Each structure stands twice: as C-alpha cells, then as structure tokens.
From TrEMBL:
The lineage of its organism: Bacteria, Bacillati, Actinomycetota, Actinomycetes, Micrococcales. This is Cupin domain-containing protein. CDD domains: cupin_HP0902-like. It comes from Microbacterium protaetiae. Gene3D superfamilies: Jelly Rolls.
Length: 120
C-alpha cells in the first residue's frame, strides 16, 4: 500500500503573465493529478482525455466548455467529464485548477482460498 500527501498543491505552480503552466503533482494507481496556473485569457484549447476527468478550481475564475455547454468554475467548484469528450478550459482571470485524470486500475487475479483439510 502506498500513500502520497501534498501539503499545498497550489504552491506547485505560479501564474505567469500571458500563459498557462502546469506541473504533475502525483501519479498513482488509477489517477494522475496535474495542477495548472492560467493568466487571464490563457486556455487549453479543445482536446480530449483518454479516461474520465475531475477538475477543481483552486483560485480565480475558469470557464470549462464541453458538448456546447459552458460551466463556470470558481474556488471550490468541481466537475466530472466522461472519457473522450472534447472540452476546453479558459481563464477569465488569473486562476489555478487541479485536474485528476482517472484510469481503471489493472485487474488483479482473484485470490483462491483452499478450505483447511483439502489438498491438491
């Protein structure tokens, strides 16, 4: 069993003038977490993710658009999107967000328990 803790994830990135920056915060069993910083007007143009995602705003104001629907994300706001749905993100003001890329954990073979007294 592994455990990873990050004390202050938003400290991993700094809003830089005119651009977007990102940093992988952790990669573990079934999840990869990336923290982003956007200056006002910076964006992630339309793209897709291979698995489902969860996005949470940490600072500022972001717009998240998918399937013709735009949602506004502010600190504490969170959203989920299914795999392979085209989407984009744009910062209305200097902002930070967490992106959690989810993937199915590899299947493990079931353990076989042999009752006491039975031999093979």
């Amino acid at each position: 069993m592994g455990i990873t803790a990050i004390e202050n994830i938003d400290a991993l990135v700094v809003v830089e003038p005119g651009t977007r920056t990102s940093q992988v915060a952790l990669s573990g069993d079934g999840v990869r977490v990336v923290v982003f910083a956007f200056d006002a007007g910076a964006e992630l143009t339309e793209h897709t993710a291979p698995g489902p995602i969860v996005v949470q705003a940490l600072e500022g104001h972001l717009t998240f658009t998918a399937e013709g629907i735009t949602k506004h994300l502010r600190p504490g706001g969170i959203l989920h999107l299914d795999a392979r749905i085209p989407h984009s993100v744009r910062a209305v003001e200097p902002s930070k967000m967490i992106l959690m890329l989810l993937r199915k954990a590899p299947e493990r073979a079931p353990e076989i328990t042999v009752p006491a007294g039975i031999t093979g």
